[in-house]
Structure formats: structure tokens, C-alpha cells
């Protein structure tokens, strides 16, 4: 079996504040200062998507009502720090190739 067939992305269905469902692919995950963060990209859903810009979405794992959920990062300094971390890892990955 070729490596192409062995690749299966980690897909997540996330629901925004308005109740809209969107699909994302896990790009990277890391524990930073004792907190778990996830960097995700919108999942490819149609040919139009391939021609559009896509933003890296960074979410934080929090516990709410005894359940782990992914939430946006409200603190600007925390978001900047975590964003910088993931962008540096992305740049390092491209430089290695």
C-alpha cells in the first residue's frame, strides 16, 4: 500500500457561536505553559475552496461542565504568543524540506 493511501487527516466538525457547522483538519497540536492548543485549517469541501485563502485557526482546549471543548482564545497576549509558536513551527517544517 502506498503512503498516499495511508494518510488519513484528523477531521473535526466545529460549531461556531451562530450554530454553523464547519469542518477542519488538524494541522498541529502542542502543550504550551500547561495548556493544550490546536492549530487547524478549514477542510477542503469543494473546488471553489481550493482557490480561496484559508486561515490557520488556533483553539484552546478547556473544560466546560466536565467536558473537554475547543474554544477561541480571548486574551490577545496569549493568542499572539501561541500564534507565533505555531507559525515558527510551520516555518521550520518548510525550511527542513
Give your account of this protein's structure.
- It is a single chain.
- This protein is an alpha+beta fold and about 100 residues long.
- The protein contains three helices and five strands, in the order αβββαββα.
- A five-stranded antiparallel beta sheet has the order 1-2-3-4-5.
- It starts with a helix and ends with a helix.
Specify the overall morphology. Answer: globular
Mean pLDDT: 82
Largest beta-sheet details: 5 strands, antiparallel
Task: Classify the beta-strand content into a percent band.
Answer: 35-45%
Side by side, the strands of the main sheet go 1-2-3-4-5
Query: From the helix content, strand content and strand pairing, which structural class follows?
Result: alpha+beta
Query: What string, H for helix and E for strand, traces the elements in order?
Result: HEEEHEEH
Distance between the termini: 24 Å
Number of helices: 3
**Strand segment tally:** 5
Question: Which regions have little confidence, pLDDT < 50, spanning 5+ residues?
Answer: none
Question: Into which percent range does the helicity of residues fall?
Answer: 25-40%
Task: State Rg.
Answer: 15 Å
